[in-house]
Design a protein that fits this description.
- The structure is a single chain.
- With 338 residues, the protein is of the alpha+beta class.
- Helices cover 55% and strands 18% of the residues.
- The chain contains 15 helices and seven strands.
- Strands 1-2-3-4-5-6-7 form a seven-stranded antiparallel beta sheet.
- The longest helix has 17 residues.
Length: 338
């Protein structure tokens, strides 16, 4: 499920509470909404002829249809409410939500911008707009509206959203103060600790990064979150080399007689074609680290002649990864899975 799905539901529920002008509010329908009796609302209102509907009737009809995922009807009635009352902000919220769920982002956006036009400090509209643009991968626009949300409400959620979209833009340096601020709110956030590791690795601050790497391991060990518990690696670094995009991952639990402290996914045209790994082997008389390569096309694992008695510094490992990509390392053993 996309992040925005949960986000927009929360925002729209909030919109019902504060954006619905009192002259349109109907206590009977509000009670039925709280009881999830959406069909009853529709049945009650549609007993009358459509020509007699008020803006409030159209709003509640649209809202009930929206809740029932009958988007065509929801849009019809919400637009009718807006035609009768052009400044009916709650109707704009739910119309935007219905357009979003219909995949009609371009129509949702002007509805939310209308809300901001009516109230420049409408933080919910800014938050939803940021989410829609993020979903569309228009990160510049997402950052604009998330930043506006943060200006209006300097809170954990707005801090997280600005930090995360800056991370998606790979603007790690500007993300850093927001990540630090969010970690003051929640030091056990796996995603924010991970982003801090990315920032510090990008700056070459490996010693400081170790603090957050340890925190990630502690979170993983203590968490009840199944999604986190399923993870074996976390993302630490990325770079490009001779036409390849490389993402570097660090193993969360570095224990055992054979494991890979670091694994690099090497991509060509968006597809992982091989991995280059720093592999730890304690099966022999003397434990050591070695550079290993997995060729995904042939399902072949290669052990190179690049051995280390101690774990190499990260820049040294990255240099060997580049040499492996360029075919400069000698292979001393191989095995193929069929």
């Amino acid at each position: 499920m996309k992040k925005l799905t949960a986000l927009i539901i929360l925002c729209l529920v909030a919109g019902l509470c504060f954006s619905n002008p009192s002259e349109f509010k109907n206590e009977k329908y509000e009670k039925l909404l709280k009881q999830d009796c959406y069909e009853k609302i529709i049945e009650t209102i549609t007993k009358a002829d459509e020509t007699s509907y008020s803006a409030g009737d159209c709003y509640y009809l649209g809202l009930a249809c929206f809740k029932l995922e009958r988007d065509d009807e929801a849009q019809k009635y919400l637009k009718m409410a807006i035609q009768m009352e052009p400044d009916f902000s709650a109707a704009y919220y739910y119309l935007a939500g219905s357009y979003y769920y219909s995949g009609r982002y371009d129509e949702a956006i002007p509805c939310l911008k209308k809300c901001i036009e009516m109230d420049e400090n409408d933080s919910d509209a800014c938050r939803i707009l940021g989410g829609i643009y993020e979903d569309m991968e228009d990160y510049e626009s997402a950052l604009f509206y998330y930043s506006r949300f943060h200006e209006i409400e300097n809170c954990p959620e707005s801090t997280y959203l600005v930090a995360f979209v800056l991370y998606e833009m790979k603007d790690y340096e500007n993300a850093r103060p927001y990540v630090e601020q969010y970690l003051d709110y929640d030091p056990n956030s796996f995603s924010m600790n991970n982003i801090m590791v990315l920032i510090l690795y990008g700056n070459g601050e490996y010693e400081l990064a170790s603090k957050y790497e340890l925190q990630l391991q502690n979170i993983w060990e203590s968490t009840q979150d199944e999604d986190i518990k399923k993870m074996n690696f976390f993302f630490v670094y990325s770079f490009e080399h001779n036409g390849y995009d490389v993402n570097v991952y660090e193993k969360i639990v570095q224990k055992g007689v054979f494991y890979s402290p670091f694994t690099c996914n090497v991509k060509s045209k968006g597809k992982v074609v091989k991995t280059v790994n720093l592999e730890y082997d304690a099966l022999l008389d003397e434990s050591f680290y070695v550079i290993g390569i997995n060729d995904l096309k042939t399902n072949t694992h290669y052990t190179t002649d690049s051995f280390f008695r101690e774990k190499p510094e990260f820049p040294v490992f990255i240099d060997y990864v580049k040499r492996a990509i360029d075919g400069e390392l000698e292979n001393v053993a191989s095995s193929t899975r069929k």
